[in-house]
């Protein structure tokens, strides 16, 4: 079974439409539908989005077919925690960058006022 066949099986098990699934991961209309219909691979960036948006999906099963389709509750919780830690780190970095920009603009503004 291919990745796209396993993805189709997962979507069916979630009892959602392929279009709803596409909207949830942010793809254009028909990207996943056409891949399933034509048995074509999808970009790795979409696989990353799928794993991010559907933490109950076991990435090892999706990619290799090994293991079970769904993660255990412990694995899902670990994945969510990793995701939120990564998000918090990126947010902290963005805030630090914004603070530096504000300081730079304040210095420029002070120089102009003189």
Molecular structure report:
With 114 residues, this protein is mainly α. It folds into 2 domains: 1-71, lambda repressor-like DNA-binding domains (434 Repressor (Amino-terminal Domain)), CATH 1.10.260.40; 72-114. Helices cover 75% and strands 0% of the residues. It has 6 helices and no strands. It has helices spanning 3-14, 18-25, 31-38, 44-53, 59-64, 73-113. The chain is elongated and about 70 Å long.
Give the rounded overall mean pLDDT: 84
CATH architecture grouping of the largest domain: Orthogonal Bundle
Helix content range of the residues, please?
over 70%
Assembly state (oligomeric): single chain
CATH topology grouping of the largest domain: 434 Repressor (Amino-terminal Domain)
**How many β-strand stretches?**
0
Helix/strand-derived category reads mainly alpha
Radius of gyration: 21 Å
Our count of domains comes out at 2
Q: Regarding CATH, which class of the largest domain?
A: Mainly Alpha
Shape type: elongated
Query: What string, H for helix and E for strand, traces the elements in order?
Result: HHHHHH
Low-confidence stretches: none
Major sheet size, sense and barrel closure: none
β-strand amount: under 5%
Q: What is the tally of helical segments?
A: 6
CATH superfamily of the largest domain: lambda repressor-like DNA-binding domains
In angstroms, what separates the terminal alpha carbons?
71 Å
């Amino acid at each position: 079974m291919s990745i796209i066949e396993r993805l189709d099986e997962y979507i069916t098990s979630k009892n959602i439409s392929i279009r709803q699934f596409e909207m949830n991961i942010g793809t254009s209309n028909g990207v996943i539908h056409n891949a399933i219909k034509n048995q074509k691979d999808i970009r790795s960036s979409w696989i990353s989005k799928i794993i991010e948006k559907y933490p109950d999906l076991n990435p090892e099963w999706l990619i290799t077919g090994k293991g079970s389709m769904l993660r255990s509750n412990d694995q899902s919780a670990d994945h969510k925690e990793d995701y939120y830690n990564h998000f918090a780190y990126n947010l902290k970095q963005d805030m630090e960058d914004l603070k530096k920009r504000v300081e730079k603009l304040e210095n420029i503004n002070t120089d102009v006022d003189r």
